[in-house]
Amino acid sequence: MDKKSKYITFIRHAESKENSGEWEIGLDNSIVPLSEAGFLQAKKVWKNESWSLGSYDKVFVSPYLRTQETFEIITQDVTPHYDSRLREIYFSNIGMEHGELLHIFKWLKTEASEHEYLFYEEKGLESMVSLYERVESFMNDFKNEEGSEFLIVGHSIWFKAFEAYCACVNRQKNPYKFMYENRNKPCLSNCEKRYMSFTF
Fold first, then answer.
1. Number of C-alpha atoms within 13 angstroms, CB side, residue 34?
2. Separation in Å, CA 52 to CA 48, 57, 74, 149
3. In sequence order, what are the residues at sequence separation of 6 or more whose Cβ sits closer than 8 angstroms to the Cβ of residue 127?
4. Nearest to residue 57, comparing CAs of 89, 9, 127?
5. Beta carbons of 179 and 118 less than 8 angstroms apart
6. Mapping DSSP to helix (H, G, I), strand (E, B) and coil, where does residue 6 land?
7. DSSP secondary structure string, 118-158?
8. How far apart are CA 69 and CA 113, in angstroms?
9. Which helix (H) or strand (E) holds 197?
10. Residues 187, 189, 190: CA angle, nearest 5 degrees
11. How far is residue 158 CA from its own chain's centroid?
12. Which of 144, 158, 165, 168 sits a CA distance of 20 to 30 A from 178?
């Protein structure tokens, strides 16, 4: 069987009200909208793009509101495919103080062992292993997509797990060890883009 190359452009959503500090921690993370600055940011990044959305064989978007708004702000002509596996890492933090949530994330990045980092799921937090399994499931289906050029509009922590998948497929790295070793690597900035290629 002939191998085929596929290319993915990944873009993180524009600034949300959670990013700007305007969103109350404890509310549903899936309905966080873009901030006023985020709407302007999204318009600017799409306006400055030299490529056309029509050049993509398929566009995938996380079903969360901030990713939908980032994409839909610039087009009504391209129909995106919403996939729940592209959503942000899940945390049910209702009733949790903001400082407590930040403390957990800081602990996971700086003090947790590899096992704790990968499998921690207390306080309603989805584990990194579960997140990676979502990425892997999505990519297993993605292999069968027709075409070669794709766009994903998603989230920064999802992209960290996606990078681990790329390291596994392209460089035969252990994806879980890769995630742990790169846990302190800065997340993508709002509207930052990355380009990935695969040969399946």
1. 22
2. 11, 11, 11, 12
3. 118, 119, 120, 121
4. 9
5. yes
6. strand
7. HH--GGGBPPHHHHHHHHHHHHHHHTT-SSSEEEEEE-HHH
8. 37
9. strand 193-199
10. 130
11. 3
12. 144
Residue carrying the six token digits 């990013």:
19
Geometric angle at alpha carbon 140, from 137 and 144, rounded to 5°: 140
Pairs from 96-104 (Cβ < 8 Å, separation ≥ 24)? 96/25, 96/26, 96/123, 97/25, 98/25, 101/25
* Residue 194 identity (one-letter amino acid): R
- The enclosing H or E element of 183 equals none
User: Span 188-196, mean pLDDT?
Assistant: 93
Q: How many residues does the chain have?
A: 200
SS3 state of residue 170: helix
Q: How far apart, in whole angstroms, are the C-alpha atoms of residue 12 and residue 41?
A: 12
The edge-to-edge listing of strands for the beta sheet with 193-199 is 81-82, 58-61, 149-154, 5-12, 193-199
pLDDT tens-digit map of 103-157: 888 899 999 999 999 999 987 789 999 999 999 999 999 999 999 999 999 999 9
Tell me the whole-structure pTM to 2 decimals: 0.91
Distance CA 181, CA 87 (A): 23
d(CA 97, CA 166): 35
The CATH-assigned architecture of domain 5-199 is 3-Layer(aba) Sandwich (3.40)
